[in-house]
Structure formats: structure tokens, C-alpha cells
Amino acid sequence: MSKLQQRMAEFGFESNDDYEYHLRCLMNSQFDGIKTINVEGHQGRRKTAFANALACAIDYPQQFYYDFTQKAEAEGKVIIPPSEDEDGISEAPISDFDHIMSEACAFSEGEPTVLILDQLHSADFKDHIRIYHFIKSCQWSYSDNTLRASNKNLLLLLISDEPLYHSLQKCSFRIWVNAVSLTPKEYSPSDFDLYDDAQAIMDTLANVFSYLTVAPTYSEYKNILHDIHINVHTEQQLIHSLYGWMEGIEQQQLYSKQLFPLLSQVIEQLQDYHGVDELVIES
After folding, report:
1. E strand intervals along 1-91
2. Residue spans per domain, the chain
3. What pTM, to 2 d.p., does this model score?
4. Is the model's pLDDT at 56 over the cut of 90?
5. According to a count of CB atoms within 10 Å of the terminal CB, is the N or C end of the chain lower?
């Protein structure tokens, strides 16, 4: 497991997939605008979890987050009247989006800063265009104000459930975040502080994971093995533990006729492991 994987797991995003290479490609690119990641993946908030964990894992001291669905939620709320200067000229209040962008620009001038723009599919198309020009020029403009961001310190992450505006895609590095971990990991009993005689159980579990087309992360596997040693006595109980601890398992899959013999093999190995001939316990 890479250092980035370990750090991201500490901040709530555990995956067998390693994104260290992707980040290195972006940071070493020759693009002279704002370094930008286009976070793609299946619908859901796992992309958001990825972005937030990445921001924390790379130890950027300044982190900003904006969700474009907030704009829709704010519609219909009481709006503060625009302020007036000493000459009575009205000045429109700054939007939440412009406020976040302004703060990210300002802080990036002094230290590494991450800006996450989430649910971009809910943004007005004109905002897509504004973000594109910001990435290229490192300048953010609203009303009569123009702020500059540091292309050396600012990292921008864009999250959308729909394809980004073409120009935005062309000036960003795409990273695909799977709904579940797909990269299989070769674990051994020693990885979980177990003796070699637990290998037979892990071998039969590997057949179960293969049938389900899932690859457990370290913590998922650790929880499952703990249940197998302490709680599991029947196929039904094993089903509950698999579904309870692992992302990406379809509940109906666990009750297929083809899977049941594989579950039984795990139980048989477990009984051999504990030196028990047969256990009949109601689930």
C-alpha cells in the first residue's frame, strides 16, 4: 500500500486502487494554468469522499469546498438587499460561489490550497465557462473585482455526475473513482496477525470474492476474518458478515444457488480450523 493510499484511508477513503501515479502525472505536467483534476466515476458521493480525503492526505493547509446544489437550495430564501456606497450607487451582494473562489485565490497566493467544486452538473453553463477561463488565466473576476490565484499553490478538483464542458475536460486530468475497489490484493494470514493454518479459510474466501467480482479492502477483509473467527458458524451468518462489511455486494448475489457451495466450503474449512466436526446453529 502506498503512502497516499494509507493517508487517504486515514481520512475516510479506503481503496485498493492507488492514485499516486495519477497525482504525479498532474503535478509534473507542463500546463501553466491551474492544476485541475476532473473526478469521474459512478453516481454517488464516493467521488466527494475521494476528493476530500485527497485534500487532507496531501497536507494542503488551506481547503475550500463548494457544492453547486447549495445554490438551488438557496433559491426562495430571503435575500439581503444590495448595499449602497456614499453616492447611493447599489452594489450587488457577492454570491457564495464567488466568495469561495475569492478566498481560494487569496489564500493560494501564500500557501498550498485545495478547492473542491462539487455537483458541477447543477451549475449554470456560464459557470463552466468562467471556471475554464479561470483555469487558463489564473484570474477570477466578478463585478468589478479581479483576483489572481497561484498556479503553483492551487489544486482544483471538479466533481460532476455528467460530462464536463468540453474545454474543461481538455485542461484537466481525469481520474476515475470506482464505486468499489476493483484491484485485487493478495493477502496472507500474516497480514492479519494469523498463523499459516488460516490460509485454507482465506483460499475458500478468495473463491467467494471471485464469484461476487469484488475485492475487499484491508479493513473489510480484517472485519470479515474477525467475524469468521468469532461469530460465523453457518452460511447464513457468513452472508450477513459479507454484506455487512463490504461495499459493492449486491444482496441478491449472496443468495444465488451457485454461491452456496462456495460458502459451504468456507464453513467446512472453518470447522476444520476450530477442530469441530459439525455445528448446527440457527441463524
Report:
1. 35-41, 62-67, 83-84, 90-91
2. 3-177, 189-274
3. 0.80
4. yes
5. C
